[in-house]
Amino acid sequence: MSVPMLLTPLEPQSLDEHMQNCADAAAAISATSYGNTGNELIESSSGTSNCKPTLRKFNVRLETPLAPEEQLGLTGDAKALGEWQLSRCVPLERMDELTWQTHVRLQSCRQLEYRYFVYVENAAGYKQIRRWETHFKPRVLDPCMDQHCHSPLDVFGLASVDERSAQVHRGWLNHEAIVQLKFNGEKMFQVHDIETFDPQHVQLKIVPVEETAGLVVEYSKQLYGKSQLQLQPAHGVSYTKGDIVIFHITLPLDRMMLQNFRLECYSLAQELLGSASLSASQLAGSEGLLQLHIKSAQRPEETLARLRLPYVVVQPYQYSPLDFKTTYAHYWPRSWPNLDVGHRGNGKSYIADAPLERENTIASFLSAYSHYADMVELDVHLTADGIPVIYHDFGLRTAPPGKQIEKPEQLEYVLIKDINYELLKRLRIFSVVNGKVMEYPAHNAEPRPDHRIFPRLVEVLQQLPKSLGIDVEIKWPQRRQGGGTEAEQTIDKNFFADRVLYEVIQFGCGRPLIFSSFDADMCTMLRFKQNIFPVMFLTQGETKKWQPFSDLRTRNFLAAVNNAQAFELAGTAPHAEDFLGENAAHMLQQAHVQGQITVVWGDDCNSKERVKYFTEIGATATCYDRSDLHVPETKQRSFFNSSALLAEFEAQCRI
């Protein structure tokens, strides 16, 4: 049971203060009971004599042994089980290599819920979640009125005897960070002598210089069906040009400025060729590019190669603690039909024959819903003062007040990231349609609130009905293969992600909601910062419409599927152009076999015939313009417009 909390709309000038208040409230709540008042054992003994504290035994068997530093924990909805909080969990005792056990004194007369998880402790005593049971519904411990209660033997990851495969996923960040070193591009090495060092035939390994409790180095070599994170081989991971290898380092926060590493390069004959040193203190900001010199193992003064190595740092979500109560990160039942998703609401606006409502406005979202769209897709940017707002492009065309505009070259282009929200609402808005300059009402000039451009994310979350699902696309500019980026971005990526997460967690719970982004690293951040909402990797794939991005993970559908598997994303949102050939159904099946969803999007979806086609070949959902024109004629309501379905999402709301 969640603890209710009264929430009011955020004002721009009080955003930081409001967030701090909510964080303080969350901390206070985590220190009290989730649905129980005071000491449950005292209360039970003072009530009916039939309800007495009883020592309950928890027995669990593992399929494979834990690592020497790993421990098994227990948490649940009772005070004595820690009320889903990591810091108050119950440790189990290792009985043998595969069996763990503990005893907990609990109420005898009520049904309890619980989960198991694997963790390690760092030197400061903080727990780091390695893996946890992620069944939609927790395990259940039935009431027991006898002195000797039956204690079933649980199997880690299997909540019932009917399950065939374990439901276990990695945890979310708490007192640790993730550093990823990414071999995901072209021309990463500059070699001095190909005879001495051949980057086409090399094995790579990241070695921590200092031993640190809670530090683990894993890697993903992204191949279909084999992309999961795993420990490194003794002599490194084979790498050649075109491979995608991501080193995934988890380390305690207090080691972020102190830990040192060594990149070791081996030949295929497992001979150490050379190495480069790097320190966590070199990792400035959330992402960047390391310039490493690989020095010869035989002649340390000799440089074998130079390496341009991109990195990303994922910090824990900073505003409120999360818990084990439940997760929707992989919740997409097979019984759901193919869903209809309204692209930017009821479709693109700054084109010929646009819909009546401007895209990415509350009016446009409600229009799609009125025509039975199940979800709407919207695009989120952050303003200069940290306000998440809804708009598609990274910037906008504008002009000073009163200036007469006749030609496109008279317009100025400004980026949303550089503008405070109050100024953004005042700006004149223009677009160029078929060579003609068109002006649209500024936010402040539009008398109808639902039709105003640049609605805040919090307003959208509060005003749309819960029965309308939302695909929250996080806009982050991509570097192009031919050079340059889509737009400049100076806002810190962790800060951006946390601001959006804060509003979604506080105001967007209790509804179908999924995150997506074209930025693979943003998807990784959203996945490991929280455990509530699913995340999709959004890609343009093999297209003739736009220039490819430099990140190899974005280049084709299978690369996206592999990346989703590596970092346990819910799935992908691929471009429709990838699925117009004869093998389209097979391609989608390749994703579904990996347990992933696929939300197909693009102009090639924009007709009733294409909507039907993508449904028939097995897309999980289809995202298209003009729900008013293209929703199937037989559809009579939005799928989530059901009290029973909405009840399934109530547990998203933690405070």
UniProtKB/TrEMBL annotation:
Pfam name, any one: CBM_20
Keyword Oxidoreductase: no
Entry keyword set: Hydrolase
GO MF term set: glycerophosphocholine phosphodiesterase activity; starch binding
An example Gene Ontology biological process: glycerophospholipid catabolic process
TM annotation in the entry: none
GP-PDE domain residues: 338-634
Residue span(s) of domain CBM20: 48-158
Protein name according to UniProt: Glycerophosphocholine phosphodiesterase GPCPD1 isoform X2
Source species: Drosophila hydei (Fruit fly)
